[in-house]
């Protein structure tokens, strides 16, 4: 993707992610995909690859495609830029992330994650061995969720990766079993190896 500040984000590259963002924000998809963001919000090619790889580590490919496969990384980038789930709200204490702070006190999550993961993998997350990349993401995750009070940007990033995945067709109807009208309540059911959790329209309420 070319990073021309005057051009904004490429519509074709983000069309699938923008459709999900539009659904979450309740606006037409074109309004999201064609919205011109500040030049510093436009991701580099490396940042998009990083977010795809990180998404795939959060939800790896199994019998169904992983989060990176379905575009959850691009979804998270757009969602963060548009402030979904309060991701553009100022932090209570932004001093720890001052290098990545906007004028309004919110954080540039993708830039922070890129710097954080590069620093944990010898300078280049994308060039590091797979095991080292996984270890770096696990370490960031463990530190972020070590306390409820933590304002780590990773919490918003991970949450939006999950939202992007489970509001996609793969996540909502293949990884989960889509049942638009749930059946009767059974308090005790056998749990078999092929059991998949059920999703329905209320899943969209939870994740959207």
Number of domains: 1
Q: Using only CA atoms, what is the Rg? A: 18 Å
| Low-pLDDT runs | 1-15, 25-36
Give the helix tally.
9
Distance from N terminus to C terminus (CA atoms, Å) equals 28 Å
Broad structural category: mainly alpha
The biggest beta sheet is recorded as: 2 strands, parallel
The topology string of helices and strands comes to HHHHHHHHEEH
Strand residues, percent = under 5%
Give me the count of strands.
Answer: 2
Based on Cα principal axes, name the global outline. Answer: globular
Can you give a write-up of this model?
It is built from nine helices and two strands. It is mainly α and 208 residues long. The protein has one domain (15-178, 193-207). Strands 1-2 form a two-stranded parallel ribbon. Helix 1 crosses helix 4 (72-81) and helix 3 packs across helix 4 (72-81). The longest helix has 15 residues, at 130-144. The model is unreliable at 1-15 and 25-36 (pLDDT under 50).
Task: Report a brief summary of the structure.
By secondary structure, the protein is an all-alpha fold.
What brief labels describe this structure?
mainly alpha, 208 residues
Task: Give the arrangement of secondary structure elements.
Elements: H1 15-25, H2 29-33, H3 45-58, H4 72-81, H5 109-120, H6 130-144, H7 153-166, H8 169-175, E1 177-178, E2 198-199, H9 201-207
Parallel strand pairs: 1-2
């Amino acid at each position: 993707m070319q990073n021309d500040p005057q051009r904004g984000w490429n519509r074709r590259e983000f069309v699938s992610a923008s459709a999900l963002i539009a659904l979450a924000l309740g606006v037409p998809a074109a309004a999201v995909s064609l919205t011109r963001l500040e030049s510093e919000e436009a991701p580099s090619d490396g940042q998009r690859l990083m977010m795809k790889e990180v998404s795939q580590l959060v939800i790896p490919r199994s019998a169904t495609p992983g989060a990176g496969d379905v575009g959850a990384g691009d979804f998270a980038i757009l969602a963060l830029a548009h402030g979904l789930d309060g991701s553009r709200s100022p932090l209570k204490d932004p001093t720890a992330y001052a290098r990545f702070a906007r004028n309004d006190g919110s954080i540039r999550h993708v830039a922070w994650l890129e710097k954080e993961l590069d620093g944990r993998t010898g300078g280049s997350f994308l060039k590091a061995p797979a095991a080292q990349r996984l270890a770096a993401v696990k370490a960031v995750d463990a530190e972020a969720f070590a306390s409820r009070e933590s304002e780590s940007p990773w919490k918003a990033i991970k949450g939006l990766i999950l939202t992007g995945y489970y509001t996609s067709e793969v996540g909502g109807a293949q990884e989960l079993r889509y049942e638009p009208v749930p059946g009767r309540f059974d308090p005790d059911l056998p749990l078999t190896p092929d059991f998949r959790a059920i999703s329905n329209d209320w899943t969209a309420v939870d994740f959207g």
